[in-house]
Write a structure and sequence with these properties.
about 150 residues; mainly alpha; 5 helices; about 65% helix
Length: about 150
């Protein structure tokens, strides 16, 4: 029974992270920490590393904190929560950084309806180079209007 509870917590955490991605993107990245996110919208640097990548470090630290809580402090839900955050982070990195922005040249030929919808939604978000007016949404499930045939 405990394993089913852990799986439920893992899946719930993964789904909550989609909300957190939207919330963080809209109110933090396009809000008070725009100074870290703006180089993601306007490439004014030659570096592979972006200041925007610091957001990844924050969520990695939260996930690691959950693992530490599970291992050393008896926080039994720390493992499935930490794994859910980690799994979302890996998925986000694969979809956003590798598939959409091609930071590594992989998945270039994906052209199914989902791939096209994700690319379309992200392109519309990035057409605005400033802090305001860019539509914000979660990474894995943008609005259905982007998935037209």
């Amino acid at each position: 029974m405990a394993i089913l509870l852990w799986i439920l917590i893992f899946l719930t955490t993964f789904c909550i992270m989609e909300f957190m991605a939207w919330f963080t993107h809209k109110y933090v990245m396009h809000g008070f920490l725009w100074s870290l996110h703006k180089d993601h919208h306007k490439k004014d640097h030659d570096s592979w590393w972006e200041r925007n990548d610091f957001f990844f470090i924050f969520y990695a630290a939260v996930s690691i904190g959950c693992f530490i809580g599970w291992q050393y402090y008896g926080f039994w839900a720390g493992l499935p929560i930490g794994l859910g955050i980690f799994a979302y982070g890996v998925t986000y990195f694969m979809v956003h950084d590798i598939f959409i922005h091609q930071r590594f040249k992989l998945f270039r030929n994906a052209n199914n309806w989902y791939a096209k919808g994700i690319r379309r939604a992200h392109k519309i978000h990035h057409k605005h180079l400033g802090k305001d007016k860019g539509e914000c949404y979660g990474m894995l499930f943008p609005p259905l209007k982007y998935f037209k045939k």
